[in-house]
Amino acid sequence: MPRPRRVHLSTIRHETDEAGLRYVYAVLSRRAGGVSIGVNVSTNHACNWRCVYCQVPGLVRGTSPPVDLDILEQELKSTLEAARRGELFDRGDAKEAPEVVDVAFSGDGEPTTSPDFGGAVERVGKVLREAGLSLPVILITNGSRVASPRVQQALRALADLGGVVWFKLDRATREGLRATNGTAISPERHLARLRTCAALCPTWIQSCFTTRGGAPPAEAEVDAWLAALSALTRDHVPVRGVLLYTLARPSHQPEAAELDALDKGWLDELAEKVRALGLEARVSI
Q1: For all residues of the chain together, what is the average pLDDT?
Q2: Count of domains in the chain?
Q3: Which pTM was predicted?
Q4: Based on the number of CB atoms within 10 Å of its own CB, is 272 exposed (0-12), middle (13-18) or buried (19 or more)?
C-alpha cells in the first residue's frame, strides 16, 4: 500500500504532491479550520475555468482525467492511518498531531469534470465507513458541471455521506465572471446551477475577493454579487451561508502581479452585509 511522506503543514503551502502520493495530500486549511485531507483527481493540472487567483502552477484548460480508484482508496486509507498515528506531519507524535477535520475534493482543477468523480465519492465513503470515521466530505467546485446527470448522482451520494459543497461564486456579472474566473458563462446560468446544487446537497457559497491593480473590487461588482445573494434568500434557496476569503498564497496565473490580499476589515464589512440578508458569513484570512 502506498504510504505518504511526512508533510509540513502551513496555510501558505498547499502542494498536492508533497506527501508523494498521486491523489491524496494534506493541508492546513483556513476555511476548514484544521487539517484537511485533500483528494486531487485533477492530476493533469487541467481546469475548465481559469481563475486569476489560482495557485496551481502550469494550469491548462481542460478536464480532469480518469481516476485509478483502487490507488485512490489505498492512498486515503494510508494517509488517514498515518495521521492517526502522528506519522503524517513533520513533527510531533499522535498526541500532538493536528486534528483532521475533513476530507475535501480539491486540488489542481475542477474535480467534477473527471469521468470517475462519482466513483471517487463512493470510494471515499467506503474508506471512512471502514475506518469508523464520521469526517465531513467537502466538494470544492466551480459548479460548472452541476447540470450533468452523472454529477447530480454524485452530489446525491455526497449528501448521503453527510457531505457538503463549497460552490464558487466570486462575481455575479458577465464581465466579472470573465475577468475573474475566465469563463463566458452568464451569471443567470451560473446562479441556476447554484440553485440546483443546493437542492441536491448541502451547499455553501465560497467567494474570493482580492485587490487588482491596488484597488478593491468595483462597487458595482459587489452590489451585483449582494443582489444575487438577496435573490437566493428571497426565493428560499437552501444555501448554508457564504465563505469569504482572499489571497493567502501567490497566484500562478499571468495576472499575479496585479493581485494582492484584501485586509480583514474589508471582508468583515462585506460579511456584515451578507448577514443582513439573512445568511451566515465566515471570513478566512
Answers
A1: 90
A2: 1
A3: 0.90
A4: exposed
